[in-house]
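Most newcomers find our protein records easier to grasp once they have seen one. To make this concrete, we reproduce a full record directly below:

…
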Amino acid sequence: MAKILIVDDEPNIRLLYKVVLTEEGHEVVEAENGRQTFEALEGEPFDLVILDIRLKAESGLDLLQEIVARHPQIPVILCSAYVAFQDDYTSWLAQSYCVKSSDPRALVEEVERVLARRTSPGTRDSGP
């Protein structure tokens, strides 16, 4: 079981991811903006952050840079409906990139893959 922070400005997406990841046995906390994200990250340890790239009032890529600077030990999965962001060099700071879909299986697979890489004995996670 991992503790996962979902950062997305869309309540329905947060709910979908929370339900699916909770069913997989994970503990899930939600945030809808940068302020809530850092309140959560400063308040308790997380194993993973799932981050939307397009947030209402701020850039998810800017938030990614700040998360990596302040909490480099926490892997981040970028999640977006826009495939073009994969080519933005800032997105390379994330452990992984997942395209949003109404079928969350790809996200669940990516979560498990990133968590397995993080916890594999004798391995050091060095990025995508």
About this structure: The two ends are 22 Å apart (CA to CA). The helical segments are 11-23, 34-43, 60-70, 105-119. The chain has four helices and five strands.
